[in-house]
Amino acid sequence: MQYWLFKSEPDTWSWDQQVAKGEEGEEWHGVRNYQARNNMRAMKIGDRGFFYHSNIGKAVVGVVEVCALSHPDSTTDDPRWDCVDIKAVEPLKRPVTLDEIKADPRLAEMVLVKNSRLSVQPVTEAEWKLIRELGGL
């Protein structure tokens, strides 16, 4: 299993909206960055990810699961852009903020710290376990 982080501005697509999609999940569409797209192309069914609220809140707020492999993004006719579908698994008991992540030396190499603009990014197993722990899971 691989681990990921999906960033969304909560006023555009929030954790509550993701949860409301239920087991069917939702397309993670609209990504127009090649590195983020390639990350989605590498995902497998059952991979887990953090749902991160960017801009407002700046915190990991929940856990999602990839429920559909990379496929054409329905929001464009441009064949270069793909997306996956994700479904909500569980909320963190408490959000883990970007400030907390940056302050923890064990997370200094995390992509979120080094390249905070990348909207879909890999997370190592050690980072995954630590952020879950910080979030009360």
Automatic annotation (TrEMBL):
InterPro entries: 5hmC_binding, EVE_domain, PUA-like_sf, THYN1-like_EVE. It comes from the Bacteria. Residues 2-133 form the EVE domain. PANTHER family: THYMOCYTE NUCLEAR PROTEIN 1. This is EVE domain-containing protein. It comes from Albidovulum litorale. The lineage of its organism: Bacteria, Pseudomonadati, Pseudomonadota, Alphaproteobacteria, Rhodobacterales.
